[in-house]
Amino acid sequence: MRPRIHDDDRLAIGLDIGGTKIAAGVADAGGRVVERVPAVPCPSDQAAILKAVSVLVEELHARNPGTVAVGVGAAGLVHWPEGRIRTAPNTAYRDLPLRRLLQEATGLPALVDNDANAACWAEYRKGNSASYMAFITVGTGVGGGLVLADRLFRGRTGIAMEFGHTIVDPHGAERCGCGVVGCLEPLASGRALGRYGGAAAAAEPGGTLATLAGGPGRVTGETVSAAARAGDPAARAQLERLGHWLGIGIATLVNLFDVELVVVGGGVAEAGELLLAPTRASFARYVTAAAHRELPAIEPARLGPEAGWIGAALLALDQDEPAPGREHREGPGGGA
Amino acid sequence: MRPRIHDDDRLAIGLDIGGTKIAAGVADAGGRVVERVPAVPCPSDQAAILKAVSVLVEELHARNPGTVAVGVGAAGLVHWPEGRIRTAPNTAYRDLPLRRLLQEATGLPALVDNDANAACWAEYRKGNSASYMAFITVGTGVGGGLVLADRLFRGRTGIAMEFGHTIVDPHGAERCGCGVVGCLEPLASGRALGRYGGAAAAAEPGGTLATLAGGPGRVTGETVSAAARAGDPAARAQLERLGHWLGIGIATLVNLFDVELVVVGGGVAEAGELLLAPTRASFARYVTAAAHRELPAIEPARLGPEAGWIGAALLALDQDEPAPGREHREGPGGGA
How many domains does chain B have? Predict the structure, then answer.
């Protein structure tokens, strides 16, 4: 039932516009990296972002004249299929019609999607893959993408699968960057891990966490992961706390979407089993009717931080197909 | 983009097997009721359920020889497309291959789906309708169905959209019938309303609620709704409490599925605006990026308690189509 995906030598430029940096490169339709450029810092005003993106695209296009499309994965709410970025925390753009601007500037067909959607598509195409899969990214924030019946699911307007905004603790104390109290993100992100770690270090100022960070006030998610890998019980307890919340969010996700695979990526997921084992335990505790169903696997992402721009390039090429997923859609039965 | 749906005179038998009763009738492909029979109590053992279903189908088939299919909506987890009922709270069946048994007994093509899916499809076809819509039923329990890109969404194995098991209060006090602590159902169902009302009546033994029920211990969801309609502030506060939780669940649903319409049905929804107004307020408070998106409408269901069996009949006829949704699936772009 997999859609027919052409693994040919057409090229696309891919970009990943995040809160802090822009990653870019050129990939072919098989997802092979043809060229990558060093990530550049993401400017803080909209005109400068556009300028940086244009320069990157122009350079990559000049060096790779076989390029037939441009794909962008961008943090924030991205209106589909217009590729208009409506809003994004930590970035300057507001209601930016990036797809149109890119097409005008380059003369190439462009695709602009959410960054987690792009990374999800890369993982589906080149990494851990299933016909019904959720991709979750745990970094500074928490995001996600979904493949249903072998197609990227975007909802009606492109803003589906705002996984970090699953409401899991509405009467809790943490306010999300989006303004709502109760979202998963402030409980299960890298930033949350830093906060948990800071509190643990303050409670034990001579402990591994505080020492490693150079003071309780300087603990970050990375410090916690490093201390956990070094075997520090206090640091491991914080990853368990993160996994507790992540498992709750995944339980809701599986109860609603009935996927067969959940892939966890992003910087915090590099902690591996130290995060995944408590996540699985929490998931099994909270998913409904666990005894009456096959539980989906919760596995680490195979692709690393390049998944965003590679996935954006692949989406741009798959969009360019006369009919990505056509075989599937033409089938008379089953499907989403 | 709507799938082509034939509004013709083919007939199907529809059944709705709930926890307490079985409703049945015959409808045509336009969803028009051709015959309905009085609901019968649902027996408490599996053999008796099968017997009751067989008798109903046989009688309806005999009186309506033009019947070409049988559709069943059943409470519980229903494996799709096998139509095997894996488990259901409050009913006797366990791993019952109902679709196969019905086909063998009747010689007609049969379809067995979750009861909320069937009601959702009836609402989509004949009631409040949108290409991306969620249907929520608030009765004894809380259930739901989803239409994405004009197709009923069932997930990989048929058990998607277990909306009552959205985890909204994992550190709370209420244990769900499924065994998990944190599910929406024990906080937003008719049973929860009865519990809330009972506590309110106990706090005010001479109040409207207690009087109407004939004692604080005898308050049910229905009593609370009746007292609220009569203007009792204590009863209205309980519907507001239900709406608070329902809005939280809907916020997660909309954050994940990006639907344009949420339809609320089921017995408790007959309270109308007394429930829907607080639900909308809570939803607007908890949905992410409310200022940057068009908020979906939250509206009452147009169809009543017959939606289950009518939707099951319609699903059976739409399944019988060579390609329900084919036009949509053949389109080159968009979609789920």
Answer: 2
Q: Does A183 lie at the interface with B, CB-CB under 8 angstroms?
A: yes
* Residue A152, min C-alpha distance to chain B (Å): 7
Q: What torsion, rounded to 10 degrees, do the Cα atoms A198, A204, A209, A211 define?
A: 110
Same domain, A158 and A241: yes
Interchain pair A159, B258: CB under 8 A: yes
Whether A183 and A166 have beta carbons less than 8 Å apart is answered as: yes
Does residue B324 have a cis peptide bond before it, meaning omega lies within 30 degrees of 0? no
- List the 53-82 stretch of A: residues with Cβ below 8 A of B: 77, 81
Q: Is residue A207 part of a domain?
A: yes
DSSP A175: B
CATH of the domain at B200: 3.30.420.40
Q: Is A332 on the interface with B (CB under 8 A)?
A: yes
Asked if B110 contacts B83 with a C-beta cutoff of 8 angstroms, the reply is yes
Please check whether residues A41 and A95 belong to one and the same domain.
Answer: yes
B195 at A interface, C-beta within 8 A: no
Q: Which domain holds residue A113?
A: 11-124+305-330
For B224, list phi and psi in degrees, rounded to 5. -60, -45
Q: By 3-state DSSP, what share of chain B in percent is helix, strand and coil, each rounded to 5?
A: 45, 20, 35
- What is the Cα–Cα distance from B285 to B252, expressed in whole angstroms? 12
Same domain (yes/no): A92, A186: no
CA distance A58 to A72: 14
Measured between beta carbons, which residues in chain A are less than 8 angstroms from residue B145? none
Interchain pair B257, A285: CB under 8 A: no
Over chain A (336 residues), the average pLDDT of each successive run of 10 is 66 93 96 96 87 95 96 93 81 81 93 97 97 96 96 95 98 95 98 97 95 94 97 98 98 98 97 98 97 94 96 88 36 34
Q: Which of A167, A292, A329 sits opposite B168 (nearest CB)?
A: A167
Q: Which of residues 125-144 of B touch A (CB under 8 A)?
A: 131-132
Alpha helices per DSSP H over chain B: 46-63, 98-106, 115-126, 185-188, 190-203, 208-213, 221-229, 233-257, 273-286, 307-320, 326-330
Query: Is there a domain that residue B183 lies in?
Result: yes
Q: Pairing relation of β-strands A151-152 and B33-41?
A: unpaired
Q: Judge whether B5 lies within some domain.
A: no
- In sequence order, the 6+-apart residues with CB closer than 8 A to the CB of A260 are A130, A131, A132, A133, A294, A296, A297, B156
Minimum CA–CA partner of A133 in chain B: B156
* B26: nearest Cα among B18, B14, B10: B14
Interface confidence (ipTM) of the complex: 0.92
Inter-chain residue contact A335 with B329, CB threshold 8 Å: yes
Listing DSSP states for B250-284 in one string gives HHHHHHHH--SEEEEESGGGGGTHHHHHHHHHHHH
